[in-house]
Structures are given as C-alpha cells and as structure tokens.
Amino acid sequence: MQNSPQHKTALGHIRVLDLTRVLAGPWCSQNLADLGAEVIKIERPGIGDDTRSWGPPYLKDSTDNNTSEAAYYLAANRGKQAMTVDISTAEGQEIIRALVLQSDVVLENYKVGQLKKYGLDYAALQQIKPDIVYCSITGFGQDGPYAQRAGYDFIIQGMGGLMSLTGERDDLPGGGPQKAGVAITDLMTGMYATIAVLAALTHRDKTGEGQYIDMALLDVQVAMLANMGANYLQTGKAPQRWGNAHQNIVPYQTFATADGHIIVAAGNDAQYRKFVQLGGREELANDARFQTNPLRVQHREVLIPILADMVKTKTKAEWIMVLETAGVPCGPINNLDEVFHDPQVQSRQMQVEIPHPSAGAVRLVGSPMKLSKTPVQYEQAPPLLGQHTEQCLRSLLHFDDEKIASLKAAGII
C-alpha cells in the first residue's frame, strides 16, 4: 500500500491480517486501522464475529429497522475490510497463507494451539514469511499452568486483583468487589498489543526480522495495577477497596450535590481551605483536626460527613463554577448523554460520523490519537459480514470469477 498525497497516514504502508474477534484483538486492529494500516478482518462464513449479534442495541438502517450490526461490534471494527473464509478447510487455509504472503502483521486470539492444527500458527507461517509480525492474544499466555484456560475480561479483572481494589469499602452499604463498567482488561490488552506490534514493526524495518508476540489478559491486568501493585510489592500488604475515596488524600472523592454528584480532588491544604470557605464552612479550615492532609486522613470519619452535608447546599453546576474559578480541582460525574454534549468533547471531535452501506451513516466514538502530520482518517465504517471478500480475492490474490464462484458454492468463503 502507498499513501496518497491527500491521505497521508502513519501506517499506510502496512497490511494487517486480522483473525481476531470480540474485543481485545479487534481493539488492537482498529487502532492500527485508525493510523492508516490496511486491515483485513477474517470471519466465519455466515456467522462472523460473535459481537455482530451481541445486542440490542443494533444499528438502524435508513428505514429505522435493526440491521445485523450490534453496537458492540461497531465499537471496535471501523476502518477494516471484511472477508469470510472457512479456515477449517484446506482451501480456506491456502487462502490465509496466500494473504499472509501479502501482509506485514497477523493478529489472532484463538485458544492456545488451535491454529497449529490448521497450519496457521507462527511456526508454520514464519517458514513462508520470515519477516511476519505475528501477535497472539489469549487469556493467560502461551505457557504456564493456566495456558489452556479460556480467558474472559470479567474473570481476569477478578483474578488479576482489580476487583479487590474497585468497589465500596466492605464496612459501608453496598461494599464489596466491583468490576469496571467497561471491559477494561480487554481494552488495555488491545492497547498493549498495538504498542507491541508497532515495536516489532520498527525492529523488522531495521533488521528484516519478524517476531512472535505473546499477549495475555492476565499479564496486562497485573501490569496495570500500577502504583497499587507497587504499593503491595514495597509493603507486603494488600491494598483494600476504598470506593470513590482516596486512601492517602482527604478530601479526594465524590460528593452528592443538590441535584447530582461531583468529584472534589483537593490535593493540598490550600485547596482544602478554599473548598470549605466556598461552602460557607470557614471554621473547618481553622479546625486543628483538619489543617493538614495527614490530620484530615486521621480524622476522615469525622470530616467527610460534615463536607457531605456542606456539598448538598449547592447544585452540581454551582459547585463546578465556584470551585473551578477558585482553582480547586473538581469535575462532574456525567452520564453519556452529558459526555457527548460536553463542549470539550465536541471540540475534540470525539464523536464521528462515517458513511455506512445500509444505514446511510453510523455515529461512532472517535479516536483519541491526534497526530499533526498523519491524522486519523474516518473513511471505512465497520464492515458488513464478508463485504470485501470478493474484492480482496481479486485484488490481492488475483482470483477470477470462476474460482470465486467455486469457493462460494463450497461454503469456503
């Protein structure tokens, strides 16, 4: 592939053969597509990616009827071309191998060893394309005692420690472990996989060597414990859940206002004093129990109920206005309607609209990657099942009409 002068992209010279489905793998390939890579998504004939049917909600067509594309599928598959190939057949395997010869990257998230029986594992494909970058995404990695287990985001959030840190304190109403509201381990695995693929491509461009990338959801979840993981390793003491409060800073949490909720993140003593003064409780700034952060942490159980009552005296908008003016870090807790109507979100073009063959257009969340020289292009909506099968077979593998018709009749494509 070559970039045209009008559409210069960072990865316009890269072709990705995407054998992944659901979320972690497609999130990686969508990132690469956003950056300009040509991504060919391989799916099962007649069925496709499981997430195509993970609804409602579904995309509406021009007559306001449901299409076959669930919103879940739409979230992770823009910018791709879609082919249907039955890789369990010898003919399907030959098509994949031929496509590998035309590709720079292979992504897959099959169970450990599953592609080996089809001759589509790294060892086999590396023989025919030595410089291929091959990335496998699984729940637990290619080795270790759990390698054969299926990995699901929810389970990994529990196993990897995130749910021990997320949720209200056990001694408060509603206390207990809680998963994140989105499949954050899948998403972060897709992000780490994107970085690994780009690193491997850089190495290939310098040395001519391809390589194998082994990505595991559990590894990613442990890695993204970040400071909490470091806290444990330095102390040997497992951190506990604190809900929306901070273990080391007070006040640094959510509060209910007269009409909603806000977050107040008073990171120093001066910000705390401004906060209580704006709430009409200046005496709290001078109270000996609360004058420093260590003292506020020590007397948290006394201070927080007082602050909670104070915050209820104003609306969400009133608090945001006065706190922002005074330089006290704060923010609203928005629902998604408020998110997508937020002027900052709109200014940053985090909602995009892309032409769609059956719906006319589809609205999607935009990419956060803002590149000055090679910006993200939104030209290809999440594809219909098999939308580009014949096109890719003709343009990449030079199959003629008779060959394509034969494969279709046999159910191979």
TrEMBL record:
What protein does this entry describe?
CaiB/BaiF CoA transferase family protein
Cite the GO molecular-function annotations of the record. Answer: transferase activity
UniProt-listed PANTHER family: SUCCINATE--HYDROXYMETHYLGLUTARATE COA-TRANSFERASE
InterPro entries for this protein:
CoA-transferase_III_domain (IPR050483), CoA-Trfase_fam_III (IPR003673), CoA-Trfase_III_dom3_sf (IPR044855), CoA-Trfase_III_dom_1_sf (IPR023606)
Q: Which UniProt keywords apply?
A: Transferase
Look up and give the organism this protein is from: Undibacterium danionis
Q: Does the keyword Transferase apply?
A: yes
ATP-binding keyword on record: no
